[in-house]
Amino acid sequence: IRNGWGSTIKRIERVELGIEEFDVEGRALVAELDSCFVVNAYVPNSGADLKRLDARVDAWERAMRAYINNLQSGSGSGDKPGKPVVYCGDLNVAHEDVDLWGRHAENAKSAGFTPRERAAMSTLLTECDMVDTYRTVHGPHAQAFTYWSYRGGARAKNRGWRLDYVLASASLRTRVKDAYALPDVLGSDHCPVGVVFRDV
Length: 200
Known about the structure:
The protein is α+β, with helices and mostly antiparallel strands. The chain has helices at residues 20-23, 53-73, 104-107, 115-127, 133-138; strands at residues 9-14, 28-33, 37-42, 85-90, 130-132, 164-169, 176-181, 193-197. Helix content is 24%, strand content 22%. The chain is globular and about 50 Å long.
């Protein structure tokens, strides 16, 4: 994330959502900047046979929505006013059909593309009044994958998933100058994503 509108980091803390199963895994950090909060998360994967789907959707997603809303409103922080939130990282969901290379019906039974996971992402965007910065810049039909399985030559064939996002409070929408993925950066089965915010 690059910006020029108050980027001094005031604090960085581990995020605990009150869910022991996930809190012990250290899945999220929050950085407070002058202008906003940045929450970076590695959202739990629903796993083989979707064994963690219920915990991920019913516990993690609900708690994260509440946490983001509290940051935006200032709730639970005494007299401090709220700030916009940038929520980013491996969110482990291909939200829209365009975010998955193909085999949509088959993959609807796979972690990261189940109807419940996709609906949870939609609920987060609505209930937390956030925007997908990549969609804000490039529109609803643009395709940019951020994850490719190591199996079957998926990366060479561009059979990917978009699992990594930068979401932002809707109040920041007009400041989003660019949002991008860097698929040519190797070294992982994921690639970096980023956003550029305009100055005030």
